[in-house]
Amino acid sequence: IMTIKKQQDEDDTTTTTKRNDEDEFTLPTIDGIEFVNYINEEQLDDVMRLVGQDLSEPYSVFTYRYFLHRWPQLCILAVPTDDDDDDANKTTEGVGENRRQRRPIGCVVCKIDMEDGETEDIITLEQEQTSNHNDNGTSESSDGEHPNKNESQPSNNNNANNNDGTQFTGYIGMLAVEKTHRRSGIGTVLVQRAIHRMAQLGCHSIKLETEVTNKGAMNLYEDRLGFVREELLKKYYLNWGDAYRLRLWITGGR
Length: 254
Known about the structure:
There is one protein chain. The chain has helices at about 45-50, 60-70, 125-130, 185-200, 215-225, and strands at about 15-20, 25-30, 35, 75-80, 90-95, 100, 105-115, 170-175, 205-210, 230-235, 245-250. By secondary structure, it is α+β, with helices and mostly antiparallel strands.
């Protein structure tokens, strides 16, 4: 997994970019928003709050843990950097001290599947927590990208590429942005970052399902991000709503 430079010299435009050391792809950013990794279950309530606000079929906590424990590096959170935004900040109890924790206002949660539908464990939560500590035993600060893994981990857990030719597909399971922060590009940037991360892990395509009637999601995925309709799923949801399965084919190490 690659290491990303911390953001430098933001300009006055709404959207800026961050350069990757390993390729020419630039990660989009938004002024006033920091994109950070899911670290542990202290952030679980925030993910559940964000995703659950619009669900017609609430997920159980086990569904969230299925994604977050097996693919923690494929959950990205958007948090405001403006200290004056009281609604987006809260005081929580840290480990041995009180600390200021900014409340996320958006998130994306993903996983990786084999092409035949089997799931691929890229890294477990325990491994993730281990890799987030430096030689002194203290946590590394999150800069919106996953830090380097512990080098002692098997190489086949680092990447979704497989020597036997098996192909892997990324899957976007959840995307949510608080209503007060929508139409500001946060959802688009969250998905773009997740796509880039899954591409770096070896995925050749990304897929998802969304309700046929969800015009906002269709506009985001089809018009802005280039997903195509792959299948119409009749009565896919418990409310008997139809869904489209969308797929994005990845080219050029996106």
